[in-house]
Amino acid sequence: MSKENKEILLTANSFIKAGNHEGFLSLCTDDLVWEFIGDQILSGKDAVRKYMDEVYLEPPVFEVQNLISENNSVIAIGKITLKNENGESVAYSYCDIWELREGRLKSLKAFVIKA
């Protein structure tokens, strides 16, 4: 199961890198929850879709440096660069803790720090 969960997350990441938000969301549960620790919580696919449309003005550039999976959890550690509203690239380090249910991404706890 752990290896399958890693593959699901890697596939989801490939959709994000390609700017295919709907492809990403197809791998998520309907009750998806994204929690940006210390910032905001997004509940449901519509909230995540809206966030992605607003924040991922261009597909983010990211590198997963470490991927750890056990049971229904996958932890991804890496770097991500996003374009802000002024078109400037902003780099971050992140640690994402994903929970999966029945082969779909169910929840995210994201720790994101500006580099």
Spatial strand order of the main sheet: 2-1-6-5-4-3
- From the alpha-carbon coordinates, what is the Rg to the nearest angstrom? 13 Å
The number of helical segments is 3
User: How many domain regions?
Assistant: 1
Shape: globular
Mean pLDDT: 95
Distance N to C terminus? 33 Å
Oligomer state equals: single chain
Let me know the largest β-sheet.
6 strands, mixed
Helix content: 25-40%
CATH topology: Nuclear Transport Factor 2, Chain: A
- Report the β-strand fraction as a percent range: over 45%
CATH first level: Alpha Beta
Structural class: alpha+beta
The helix-strand sequence is HHEEHEEEE
| E-strand count | 6
CATH arch. level architecture: Roll
Write the layout of secondary structure elements.
Elements: H1 2-17, H2 21-25, E1 28-36, E2 40-43, H3 45-55, E3 61-70, E4 73-83, E5 89-101, E6 104-114
Parallel strand pairs: 1-6
Antiparallel strand pairs: 1-2, 3-4, 4-5, 5-6
Features:
single chain; 115 residues; alpha+beta; Nuclear Transport Factor 2, Chain: A; 6-stranded mixed sheet; 3 helices; 6 strands; globular
Task: Please tell me about this protein's structure.
Helix content is 28%, strand content 50%. It is of the alpha+beta class and 115 residues long. The chain has one domain: Nuclear Transport Factor 2, Chain: A (Roll), CATH 3.10.450. A six-stranded mixed beta sheet has the order 2-1-6-5-4-3, covered by helices on one side. The termini are far apart. It holds the Pfam family SnoaL_2.
